[in-house]
Task: inverse folding
């Protein structure tokens, strides 16, 4: 599934050379080339994440007359958000350091930092090479930390929402406990209210 970067870059040159000015030689072709170059690993991540989802989601969506777009936005994406972040992180970090796939596609006005490392290397400017390498490293670390923090924040909010949706208050628990204790001789609503000393709204809930 992996295409060598040099082969991919030459292929893009041959196919899109005629589009110089509106695709070839622009930032867009660099983004597309990197997405194609590193497609295999994010694809496997997405496939594994989808395989872990409950297969009954689709049936439930059809039963509730929910559109596929709604199921995608409200069910699949929230349950796969951490995987989406991992995919973006993989694309970003590898695109920051790739050279072979884009070496034939860059112009003087859109040269990535990774290409500058090679340029300064040919002129024996090792100081600038070191500086650029450190800059790339720092950017990747900052982006990685931010994405990890975002992923944990979203997961925490999701778990908190799930817990709050199923959590019982202390009073509600007392009501259910009384119902459980008196399973053999069911109590009326008035008797439960009298035993737990709670308003009717709590018992009704």
Result:
């Amino acid at each position: 599934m992996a295409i060598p970067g040099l082969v991919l870059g030459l292929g893009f040159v041959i196919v899109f050379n005629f589009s110089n000015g509106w695709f070839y030689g622009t930032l867009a072709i660099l983004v597309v080339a990197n997405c194609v170059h590193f497609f295999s690993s994010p694809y496997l991540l997405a496939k594994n994440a989808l395989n872990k989802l409950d297969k009954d989601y689709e049936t439930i969506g059809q039963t509730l007359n929910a559109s596929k777009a709604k199921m995608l936005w409200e069910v699949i994406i929230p349950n796969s958000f951490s995987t989406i972040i991992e995919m973006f992180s993989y694309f970003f970090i590898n695109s920051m350091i790739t050279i072979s796939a884009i070496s034939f596609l860059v112009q003087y006005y859109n040269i990535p930092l990774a290409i500058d490392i090679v340029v300064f290397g040919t002129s024996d400017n090792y100081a600038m090479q070191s500086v650029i390498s450190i800059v790339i490293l720092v950017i990747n670390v900052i982006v990685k930390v931010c994405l990890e923090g975002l992923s944990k924040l979203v997961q925490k909010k999701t778990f908190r929402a799930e817990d709050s949706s199923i959590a019982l208050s202390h009073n509600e628990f007392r009501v259910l406990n009384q119902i459980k204790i008196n399973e053999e001789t069911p109590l009326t609503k008035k008797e439960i209210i009298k035993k737990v000393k709670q308003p009717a709204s709590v018992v009704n809930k």
